Amino acid sequence: MYRRTVLGFLVTGIVSICYLLIGNPSSEIIRIIRSPEFLLTFSAGSILAVSGVIFQNVLSNPLADPYILGISAGSGLGAVIGFYFGKDPHIFSLLTGIITVFLLLLMAKFLNSKLKLLLFGVGLNTLFSSLIVFLIAFGKIENFPSILFFLMGFIPIISLKKAVFFLFLSLILLFILLPFSKKVDALALGDSFAYFTGINPEKERIVLIFITSVFIAFTISQTGIIGFVGIVIPHIGRFLKILRTKKLLLFSFFAGGNALLIAKSILKFGFPTTDIPVGTVTALIGAPIFIGVLVRSKRFA
């Protein structure tokens, strides 16, 4: 695990140096634009990937992630409401994201079934997506580009102070989840096994979903909806035989952050004159990888 952590830091250092220095920018551009972009992008990718590990293991489903459960759509609906009424979309996105989290937790206790909770999330996702389309249809046409970019995932330019806050946020999530690793391993093997090891699966599942979902809501409220990172990165880790939750969390933290940085770099330096949401790249690259991992993986056969 120590070697993987050092390797993660090494790869992140190389990717960050390339991102910050490519094109020989001035020190002011590095400080005002590239450093905050780098920190926010890495943090968002890390939070999404780490959350994917937790959701997939505690729900025993390889497709579980914030988008399937409706958290992303809930945050997206809040942003669209903000745009519709001319208010701050980030605040509305955060509020509706957290409301969605509490709704999921309430239903988790009521339904008392992993499969039913997952299906409830799919229903929420469909409902919120429909409401988003409805609001867009009656909204102001000048808001369309901003709404589209948010819904497809766009890393904004923020202050360095705020970007550092999101980096700390990603580290806090990682260090909160690492002590739960053994419990998550037990939950991944099924509720019967968890009971046998002295774990209350319903309680632990609710706690873990709540913790990760709140961090996801904070992330989505700032970056918009970025898909496939939470699904693909944990599967890549498992494909590389990283099966224990503790090691998989560390792998996903670095791999998720670097994957989103690479996707952002493709857009920033490959298409410098065109604004394309980073969520389009993660979908274009992530979908084929996801299909390939599922086809070749014996774990979910």
Quick overview:
The chain is mostly helical. The protein has helices at residues 2-21, 27-58, 71-85, 89-111, 114-138, 144-152, 160-177, 181-188, 191-196, 201-223, 229-239, 245-270, 278-296. The chain contains 13 helices and no strands.
Which descriptors apply to this entry?
301 residues; mainly alpha; ABC transporter involved in vitamin B12 uptake, BtuC; 78% helix
Textual characterization of the structure:
With 301 residues, the chain is an all-alpha fold. The protein has one domain: Orthogonal Bundle (ABC transporter involved in vitamin B12 uptake, BtuC), CATH 1.10.3470.10. It has helices at residues 2-21, 27-58, 71-85, 89-111, 114-138, 144-152, 160-177, 181-188, 191-196, 201-223, 229-239, 245-270, 278-296. The chain is globular, with a radius of gyration of 19 Å.
* Domain tally: 1
Q: Can you count the helices?
A: 13
CATH superfamily membership: ABC transporter involved in vitamin B12 uptake, BtuC
The ordered H/E elements are HHHHHHHHHHHHH
What is the number of strand segments?
A: 0
- Structural class assignment: mainly alpha
Q: Which fold name corresponds to the CATH topology?
A: ABC transporter involved in vitamin B12 uptake, BtuC
Poorly predicted regions: none
State the CATH class: Mainly Alpha
**Main beta sheet:** none
- Please bin the fraction of helical residues: over 70%
How big a fraction of the residues is strand?
under 5%
Radius of gyration: 19 Å
Distance from N terminus to C terminus (CA atoms, Å) equals 28 Å
